[in-house]
UniProtKB/TrEMBL annotation:
It comes from Amycolatopsis dendrobii. Residues 114-133 are annotated as: Disordered. This is Immunity protein 7. Pfam families: Imm7 (PF15585).
Length: 133
């Protein structure tokens, strides 16, 4: 099974003082880019307390087809809005190296890096009793 959950707070800059008109334009660009994310289950872009936020989530039997689109979608937000920040958690039990661990992608200042997950990994025994390799 392939499972993913992610969120991004969209920002033009890291100052926390974005021009409203610029932020509106960036969110519209992000919105247009999300139309290519046809394989993803949950793609929710909305404003909350004056800040734009994107949520991604879903499950798939085989994540191989979804993985490139998911990572491209997540990274594209950072390219379009370089002050953005958030996290993306992926668990692919068919991944040859990470089948018993979540992969975590951190976006900070629009840049994506892979991080070690210390909260839910290893999945067995942390969240599952046993896990068949």
């Amino acid at each position: 099974m392939f499972e993913y959950h992610g969120w991004v707070t969209i920002a033009a800059t890291a100052t926390g003082d974005d021009d409203a008109a610029l932020l509106e334009r960036l969110v519209e660009r992000v919105h247009r880019s999300l139309q290519n994310a046809t394989l993803l289950d949950l793609v929710d872009l909305r404003w909350s307390e004056g800040l734009p936020m994107l949520h991604l989530g879903g499950l798939d039997k085989h994540g191989g087809a979804i993985t490139p689109q998911l990572l491209e979608t997540f990274a594209r937000v950072g390219e379009l809005a370089p002050g953005s920040y958030g996290l993306l958690h992926i668990w692919d039990d068919q991944h040859p190296e990470h089948d018993n661990a979540f992969q975590v992608y951190r976006m900070a200042r629009g840049q994506l890096t892979e991080q070690k997950d210390e909260h839910l990994s290893p999945t067995a025994p942390t969240v599952l009793d046993t896990y068949e390799l």
